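Sample entry (73 residues):
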Amino acid sequence: MLELMEWLAERGVTTVFKVDGERMVERRAAWMVIVSGGSLGEDSFFRADLARPDSCLDSLLAHLETKGLSPFA
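Predicted structure, serialized as tokens:
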């Protein structure tokens, strides 16, 4: 995840990856990823609140693909 965040930052994208302890205790979707700006475009904002960190990562990678960005290319 850190390598992906660095890759995005090099393209001007702001990235937040977070876990919320209160949500976890309440058994709600505790993991969150947000990306915006840079190579994603001015009006681009993506957020996913999910139960597992790998789900957030999968969701983010799918979103990047729709924007024509791939860290694995």
